[in-house]
């Protein structure tokens, strides 16, 4: 977002090669988040279906290794965007990120950016829905007490909502090409991308009572301070 805003305000200050690197960094960070989210989905699947093996498969050391692997895979497979004709760069003229118009860029735009990402989102969502249903079926199990189910359900809801927003964001990128207005394209691409990134923390606050409590406490402190000041 900083890169986009700086180019809109100050014009072309990056070399084409640097723009390519910036696009690579943006996509690598995005896929690092996506693959980490997939690891969390697998974590929940194991916790629901194989609780006796959970502590072994997802101990502290193994979990760290899984996260490192997710990040490495993301940074390695996105290295293709550093090749000529395969770049993903922000274009100040159209106010949006664009894949290269060459064959490699068009292929990545269709198969990686759209089809591959939609498949990931759909599969992750279906697995989380399955886990949520299994969680409800196992009410009699000690490992899934009432209190634990109350803590787990918001996380499943967040994952499902995140997948819906993610697919919507991907779709908006491809819908943007049908509009000629620069402002509309900016909203459907850069703005939509940033809103999706912001939606994660907001969904956590909205769906999880535990995370709303600090904000309520802050509001209570603020109200108390105002009343005290008035007196």
Structure notes:
The chain is mostly helical and 231 residues long. It has one domain: Rhopdopsin 7-helix transmembrane proteins (Up-down Bundle), CATH 1.20.1070.10. Helix content is 78%, strand content 3%. The chain is built from eight helices and two strands. The chain has helices at residues 2-10, 16-49, 51-57, 60-77, 103-137, 146-175, 182-207, 209-230, and strands at 88-91, 96-99. The longest helix is centred in the middle third of the chain and has 35 residues, at 103-137. It starts with a helix and ends with a helix. It comes from Trichostrongylus colubriformis. InterPro entries: 7TM_GPCR_serpentine_rcpt_Srx, GPCR_Rhodpsn_7TM. Keywords: Membrane, Transmembrane, Transmembrane helix.
What is the level 1 CATH name?
Answer: Mainly Alpha
User: Spatial order of the strands in the main sheet?
Assistant: 1-2
Rg estimate, integer Å: 21 Å
For the record, the count of structural domains works out to: 1
- Sheet-strand content, in percent, reads under 5%
Which class of secondary structure composition applies to the elements?
mainly alpha
- Which spans have pLDDT < 50 for at least 5 consecutive residues? 225-231
C-alpha end-to-end distance: 45 Å
Output mean pLDDT: 77
Number of strands: 2
Provide the CATH topology.
Answer: Rhopdopsin 7-helix transmembrane proteins
Helix-strand sequence: HHHHEEHHHH
Q: Count of helices?
A: 8
CATH superfamily: Rhodopsin 7-helix transmembrane proteins
Helicity level:
over 70%
Supply the CATH architecture: Up-down Bundle
Oligomer: single chain
Largest sheet: number of strands, sense, barrel closure: 2 strands, antiparallel
The global form is: globular
Pfam family, one: 7TM_GPCR_Srx
Transmembrane segments: 20-42, 63-80, 114-135, 155-179, 185-206
Keywords: Membrane, Transmembrane, Transmembrane helix
InterPro entries: 7TM_GPCR_serpentine_rcpt_Srx (IPR019430), GPCR_Rhodpsn_7TM (IPR017452)
């Amino acid at each position: 977002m900083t890169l986009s805003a700086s180019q809109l305000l100050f014009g072309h200050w990056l070399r084409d090669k640097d723009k390519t690197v910036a696009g690579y960094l943006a996509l690598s960070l995005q896929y690092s988040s996506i693959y980490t989210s997939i690891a969390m989905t697998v974590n929940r699947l194991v916790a629901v279906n194989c609780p006796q093996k959970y502590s072994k498969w997802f101990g502290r050391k193994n979990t760290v290794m899984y996260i490192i692997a997710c990040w490495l895979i993301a940074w390695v497979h996105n290295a293709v965007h550093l090749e000529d004709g395969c770049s993903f760069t922000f274009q100040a003229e159209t106010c949006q990120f664009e894949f290269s118009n060459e064959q490699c860029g068009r292929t990545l735009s269709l198969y990686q950016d759209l089809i591959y990402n939609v498949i990931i989102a759909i599969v992750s969502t279906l697995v989380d829905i399955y886990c949520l249903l299994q969680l409800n079926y196992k009410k009699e199990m000690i490992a899934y007490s009432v209190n634990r189910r109350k803590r787990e359900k918001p996380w499943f809801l967040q994952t499902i909502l995140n997948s819906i927003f993610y697919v919507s964001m991907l779709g908006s990128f491809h819908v943007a090409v049908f509009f000629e207005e620069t402002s509309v394209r900016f909203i459907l691409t850069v703005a939509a991308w940033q809103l999706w990134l912001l939606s994660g923390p907001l969904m956590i606050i909205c769906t999880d009572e535990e995370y709303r409590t600090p904000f309520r406490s802050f509001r209570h402190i603020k109200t108390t301070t105002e009343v005290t000041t008035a007196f």
